[in-house]
Amino acid sequence: MAGVGFRRWAQALSRGKGSGLSALLPGCRAASGGSKTDLPSSYPLTPEAKAAAAKKYNMRVEDYKPHTDQGEGYGDYPKLPDTSQQERDPWYQWDHPDLRRNWGEPMHWDFDMYIRNRVDTSPSTLSWSSMCKQLFGFLGFMLFMFYLGEKYPSYQPVAPKQYPYNNLYLENGGDPEKQPEEVVNYKI
Amino acid sequence: MADYKEAPLASRPKTLDPNEYFNLSLEYRRAEEERSAIRSNLKLQYQTQLNNPHRKALIEDPALNRWMYARSHTYPHFKTTFKTSLTGLLFGVVPVVVLYYLFKTDRDKKEVDIKAGKYDRRFSLTS
């Protein structure tokens, strides 16, 4: 059996037009998996190309909007709304519940950023301006007050420590025979 | 509509949006039906493969393949424009140059101080 196959292969080789290594490889590909036309390609210029691209990405022609062609490398990949997966309905039966996505659904360019563990675009309780005002207002106020405290310090009045017995004359090594000078640390 | 109050950190779900049920235009209905048809077709394909008892391999998602391919093959669609050149400069050239100058001047200053014997090593644990 193997011998027959080898003979056939040698015959095909001798008849084939290719040269080099490509002559040894079979001239056909497996039919499984997507084809070259299924993969993203360059920016669609004609309406037919747009319709074909929309069909390729499983979108309606009206919904399909490619990124504007500014040379940033997007090609014909669709521009989907910039919302995180956290904003999607938690109660719908998604095919992949953790990602809140269905099989075959076109993925956002920044999908790995918008998963539920990462960036979240859900609406916040306060407006952005209100949050900014509160945070920077508080920080600014605290910084200003600390600056004032550094410039105009305010503390209990202090003076150098006063010692009895003529500033501890004997303890500081003064001569016991000599009479120390009188030190008066008070004022009446 | 039932008494649904907007939750502070969640957008209103599509199924509770009154505009989905009242005052619908024909175009909107048609658009939603088309989208639903595409969605149902994809669901059917997925469920068929999922429930196939003879399936041993994992289910390949062509949308995922397209996403991965698009993200890794941006070079063929790259064009040198003002915007892309500016981006390249700002993110690729400027940080390197600026950091080089910052570190170099700081290190040179430190070297001069050490040579002059004025470098403050009060809290250094390594000397």
From TrEMBL, chain A:
Example GO BP: mitochondrial electron transport, NADH to ubiquinone
Coiled coil: none
Topology term for the membrane: Single-pass membrane protein
Location relative to the cell: Mitochondrion inner membrane
GO annotation, cellular component aspect: mitochondrial inner membrane; respiratory chain complex I
Source taxon at top rank: Eukaryota
Keywords (A to Z) from UniProt: Electron transport, Membrane, Mitochondrion, Mitochondrion inner membrane, Respiratory chain, Transit peptide, Transmembrane, Transmembrane helix, Transport
Pfam families: NDUF_B8 (PF05821)
Membrane-crossing segments per the record: 126-148
Region spans: Disordered: 65-90
Quaternary structure and partners: Complex I is composed of 45 different subunits.
Entry similarity comment: Belongs to the complex I NDUFB8 subunit family.
PANTHER family found in the cross-reference section: NADH DEHYDROGENASE [UBIQUINONE] 1 BETA SUBCOMPLEX SUBUNIT 8, MITOCHONDRIAL, NADH-UBIQUINONE OXIDOREDUCTASE ASHI SUBUNIT
Function: Accessory subunit of the mitochondrial membrane respiratory chain NADH dehydrogenase (Complex I), that is believed not to be involved in catalysis. Complex I functions in the transfer of electrons from NADH to the respiratory chain. The immediate electron acceptor for the enzyme is believed to be ubiquinone.
Protein name in UniProt: NADH dehydrogenase [ubiquinone] 1 beta subcomplex subunit 8, mitochondrial
TrEMBL record, chain B:
Assembly description: Complex I is composed of 45 different subunits.
Transmembrane segments: 85-103
Alphabetically ordered keywords of this record: Electron transport, Membrane, Mitochondrion, Mitochondrion inner membrane, Respiratory chain, Transmembrane, Transmembrane helix, Transport
Organism for this UniProt entry: Champsocephalus gunnari (Mackerel icefish)
Classification lineage: Eukaryota, Metazoa, Chordata, Craniata, Vertebrata
Protein name: NADH dehydrogenase [ubiquinone] 1 beta subcomplex subunit 4
Family: Belongs to the complex I NDUFB4 subunit family.
Recorded GO CC terms: mitochondrial inner membrane
Location within or outside the cell: Mitochondrion inner membrane
Topology class, membrane: Single-pass membrane protein
